[in-house]
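Bumping with the actual sequence this time:
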Amino acid sequence: MKKIILKIFVIVLFVILLRGCFENTSKAMEKYVVLIGEDSNVIDKITNIDVLIIDAEYFSKDEISHLKKNGVNEIYSYLNIGSIENFRPYYAEYEEYTLGEYENWPEEKWIDVSNPKWQEFVASRVNDLVQKGVDGFFIDNVDVYYMYQKESIYDGIINILKDIKNFDKKVIINGGDIFVKKYLEKGKNKLIDGVNQENVYTMYDFSNDSYSKNAKDTREYYTNYLDLVIQHGCTAYALEYATNSVIQREAEKYAKTHGYICYVSDNIELKLEK
């Protein structure tokens, strides 16, 4: 009888501790905001945020300092390492290293991350952004490895991430499940501090510009993915898109239940206001 009681006590204690871990994860940085589509014109509207994601290319060192004085604790700069957009000033110089079209984003192309010149260029951009005072990087499009599953592409991403970590800055990977899973399976995680997954609970349909809930199987897949990265010591972030207030609250609740830090945007452009 005592053994049974002891087992029950241990199970209950484990559940309580597990819940506490999830709650601490979601409360550690309660206010997470992603405003990649904004520029410095909105700096006075951004206050008291734990983790802010911006494209620091459009912010000066003084403006980033201003954001911190406004109560922004950590600022991560968007950094697209796996594709290149045609509106970037360096597009013409590196277009020859592109690999193919990027579905749903006509202004963008996948790029060969294994190319040493691209790696060197990304490292130089990191250096410039570090000088502006950012605390870390929000790395986009490591999904280039999903599109082109070659060891050279995988190794190219690893090289770029190592270059970033040489600056002693934090790294949040956006999406990238195929690459991230392979990396985590190889052993101790030294390169990734967090993983952000878009559309865990919600869905944006590019074909008709509509926002809705995600399919159950897709939601479960992304949930398992984020649970995995938590097990490997990463912070899990969920970036959701919804215009319906009920769905917005459901997405926030779902993330909190699973221990994810969540931001819900009402626009795919990730601007402050739609």
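The tokens above came from a reply further down the thread. The chain has nine helices and 13 strands.
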